[in-house]
Every structure is written in C-alpha cells, then in structure tokens.
Amino acid sequence: MIIGGTCMENNPNFCEENNTDKEVSTRRKVLNITLICILSVLVLTAAITGSMMLIDYLGVDTSVATPDETTVPVTTIEITTEAQETDPTLPDGTPYTDRQDWEKLLSINSDVKGWIHIPNTAINYPVLKSEEDGYGYQYYLHRALDGSYEYAGSIFIDYRSSEGVKSKNIITHGHKMNNGTMYHDLINYGAYTGDLDYYKQAPTLFFNTPEGVEQWVIFSVYKTNTLERHGDFFNYFHGDFASDAQFMNYVYNIKMRSLFNIPVPINEDDQIITLSTCSHEYTDFRTVVVARKVRQGESVKEYIDKATVNNEAWWPDVYYTDHSTPRPEITTFRTEYEKGNLPWYDGEGNLEGSEFLKGAQGNKSFTVIFLDWDGSILSTQTVTQGKSATPPADPVHPDDDYYHYVFKEWQLDYTNVTKNMTIAPSFTPVHKEQ
C-alpha cells in the first residue's frame, strides 16, 4: 500500500538539531535499522501483490488546514495494464493501457462516474457526481471518495452538467492543493502567458468510464474572474445547451480566451470536458482547461505540434486596467463565421437557434436607435448582446414633385446586436407618371 502524509521537512521530528556527536551516532544507527526494515517490508509487499496501483485520496480530518496547505493521505485501487487491441494511443504513439477496477470503485461509492488522468501530471483521480448538488451546495467539495470529510475534497462534476458524463460539456471541479495534488497541476499550463513546453508535455487527458476509455485533446486554457470588481463574469458553467448555435458560441468564447492557439477542429457534434480550479493571477481567479473528445480514428499530434502561445487572449477587465491596454472587441461565433474568421470550425454552418450565452462576458446591453427618413429618432432601445432589436413600424417618406418613396429596409442588421447602433432606413424612389 502506498502511504501518504506530511512533508518530512515540515515535521519538527525531522528538523531538530542534535546536541552531541553520540546522539547523532545513535540516531543514525536507529535510522539505518529502520530503513532496512522498511525496505524489507516494501520488497515483500511488492512480491506478494505483483500489481500496479493508482492512488486516490481517502483521507484524514484536515479541518484546521487551508486548501494550499493540506496534504492528502491515499489508498490504492488496483488496475490492469495489459495492452489490448482497442487501446487508444498517446500523441507519441504509445498505447494507453491503464484500466480502473470499476467493480471496486462502485462498491466504495456508487457516485463514481469516471476517472480522469492527464499523463505526465499528478492528476489521476476518480470523478464523482452527487444528485444532491445544486446552487451553493457541492457535496464532494470537502468529501473523499468514501464520503468521509476531507478538506481536499474530490474531483466532481458540476450539477449544471445535468446529464453527467453524457453532457455536452462535462464540467469538473477540483481544489488546487499546494502539495501538488488534486487539480494543482492545471496552473502549470501558464499564468499570464501560456507555457507551451508544458502544454506539449501534457496535451491530452483520459476520461474513463465503466463504458470505456476515451482520450480528449486540450484546446483551451484560460483565466477568468469570480469577483464583480474585476469586471463582467464569463459564465463558463454551461453544461447543457439550448441549441447548436449556443454551443458553438460557447466554444468560440473559450477559444478566444485561451492562452494558446491550438488548431483543434471543433463543430456542433463534438463533446467537451472542462477542468476548473483556483488561480491567483488576481484574487479568486480560476484556471480553466477545456478538451474535446478525440474523434474515431483521429490523430491529434499535428494539432499539438502546431500549437503556439496566444498573445491576444481575452482576459477579464482587470487585466486591461492593470496593463493600460485596450480590450479587444468581443463578438460572437455567428458574426465571426460569417466573416470567415474561424478556420478551426469544421461543421455545417448556418446553425439554427439563439447563440446567446447567459452571463457570458461581453453579454452587455447596447443602445439601438432607429431613425426616421429625416434623421429624427423613431425608437431608442436597450438590447442585450446577441438579442434582436424590435424595429418600429415602417417609416413613411413624403413624396416630392417627381418621386414616390417606398420603404425598402433598415440599413443595418439588428437581429444579433453586438454593439451600439444607429440605424437609418432605406427607400426606393419610384418615378411619378406625369
């Protein structure tokens, strides 16, 4: 069994100074004997078990600790690692052979829904989902796999991913523990700029369920705020979507926020997974990592090789205030698709339904003014971003001596408002018969 505990360098029993050479010598002898005993037990245990282990985090009471100080005791779950014909492969072609003992996991807790593993990181945990969760309450925030109290909690699925592992976006949460456990390693992808070397070291993850092993390729790593004083909140808690257009607008938003440009193609038929943890670029920030499920027969190595750092990533308002730089214009998926600016999109296009994202950063209200034929104001409206303005009745242009004027159209598209607009009418002149 693998044993976890506190760091030795922080334990006074391992740090006190000795008073005499005799005491030092005696302690060294005791330590040597102890080490020999421990090694003997480990060798014997390895010979008996003959199997590889993955750790989880059944734990002790750490109620007096903080998330950044807590250490996590561990237990073991046996896995098999024999290669199978259906094994997915890592980007370098190495077969991924890890398999969880689902019977054992589910016997411990039926809330286990999957297992998340990012190779080359410490992230390797069961994922749980409680049906009791709702707004302001997450059961596994401070509970271990067996339901006992554990400050470090468990990795768990957000209640807004209402279909669990079948959700369009599987939103997961985990604490960032300073001892490197839970979702700590997510912050290694970058702080104010992306760490491309780290991304290329850990570009994919595996989210396994009792139904099978699935590989996912990371396509976005971004930072977002939780405090109102830092600007509008980007609501990334969209686990379900009302339309394909809304889903793709969500994808567009998280790609534009990413610290990396990763040319992973995405369309309305794909499924994504979100990993969220605490971050400290600013107070109560979040680091969010998003991956797309790898398609059947797809190789992701080319996407990873072509990844670059994105120096124009969208940030919350506080970033631009600190850096005295202008904030880039925020539009929508549909707007950019019509401009031909989305080379990563490989779907059908012309998606039906509203793309409006409730609570998305940039979903502000804009003023839309409709003018009469003479420039006077017919209507002034406040319209939420992504929504349609309501045009007034068709204006009437008076005839002159030679022409009768027929209303043709409003000169700007008011059906998907993304900025303040002043809209004038167009008229078709019809020559009068003399």
What does this structure look like?
- The chain has helices spanning 21-49, 102-108, 196-201, 244-257, 301-305, 317-323, 333-338; strands spanning 53-55, 76-80, 99-100, 112-117, 124-128, 155-157, 169-173, 204-208, 215-224, 260-261, 272-279, 285-293, 308-309, 365-371, 377-384, 403-410, 421-423, 425-431.
- The longest helix is centred in the first third of the chain and has 29 residues, at 21-49.
- The protein is elongated, with a radius of gyration of 28 Å.
- It has seven helices and 18 strands.
- It has three domains: 8-50; 76-338, Sortase, Chain: A; 365-431, Listeria-Bacteroides repeat domain (Immunoglobulin-like, Sandwich), CATH 2.60.40.4270.
- The chain starts with 20 loop residues before the first helix and ends with a strand.
- The model is unreliable at 1-76 and 78-85 (pLDDT under 50).
